[in-house]
Amino acid sequence: xxxxxxxxxxxxxxxxxxxxxxxxxxxxxxxxxxxxxxxxxxxxxxxxxxxxxxxxxxxxxxxxxxxxxxxxxxxxxxxxxxxxxxxxxxxxxxxxxxxxxxxxxxxxxxxxxxxxxxxxxxxxxxxxxxxxxxxxxxxxxxxxxxxxxxxxxxxxxxxxxxxxxxxxxxxxxxxxxxxxxxxxxxxxxxxxxxxxxxxxxxxxxxxxxxxxxxxxxxxxxxxxxxxxxxxxxxxxxxxxxxxxxxxxxxxxxxxxxxxxxxxxxxxxxxxxxxxxxxxxxxxxxxxxxxxxxxxxxxxxxxxxxxxxxxxxxxxxxxxxxxxxxxxxxxxx
Length: 332
Hints:
There is one protein chain. By secondary structure, this protein is an alpha/beta fold. The protein folds into two domains: 2-81 and 127-154 and 234-331, 3-Layer(aba) Sandwich (Rossmann fold), CATH 3.40.50; 86-114 and 162-219, no CATH class. The chain is 61% helix and 14% strand. Strand 3 (64-67) and strand 4 form a beta hairpin. The longest helix has 38 residues, at 147-184.
């Protein structure tokens, strides 16, 4: 079921509570699809950098080849914020009058610690990864940060698109005001102060600002359309059969549904074996109680159970073995 779901999509997001094995499952699905001949990009947005740990090699901001047909990228949130602010600052300095360059730098410095800055910067990179990934790869797989962070991130395209739309409307109103002010031609000095420079140059600057805002609006709109397209994108929630992961999954699914994102299936990871002694039998009985709560809350979602295995999934051989387990489960 899990690999069948992946085979029918172009974009997959893996999310869930921290420590449940999201990265392991995401990396294994990506490897299995690449091994089947699809070109796959695996992207981690989790600041914990577990992708490199699982593959037992360094993975960074540039795509690295992890296996035939499979490239991996880790987006470092701190580095993403720095790059985002550097790009925005450079654009603002080009658009604003030269004497306001100091104000631009001050604004960028204050913005570094602004609430939501990390999510906004990550969203820009996710939009880039989705757009470029759909051109260069058959499948883009995202290993996301823990649930709360991911839920906010998935709701951002709608919010930021509305915010950008608001900015564009303000620019249009400002343009009409500037035109009326220029038509008055009563006080050239006043016009120069209001327009931030030579009134004759203001229109060109305004056009560039509108161009940037329009480009951002279109980019967010494309991302939002991709996320909401259930035939192209699916979100897979990975969890353990424990009380807190189950409750967090119910909440995450509700938030994703509100954001217009389809949950493709649930992956219950590290299930206790049913025939391995009294201790694990008791543990499995406890898991069944929590999974009953999950089934009651999300009765329509398909579910994949993956067993607790004896060894950590680290390195290509371990990932290949786990992929074989996924294929066997999918064939049932």
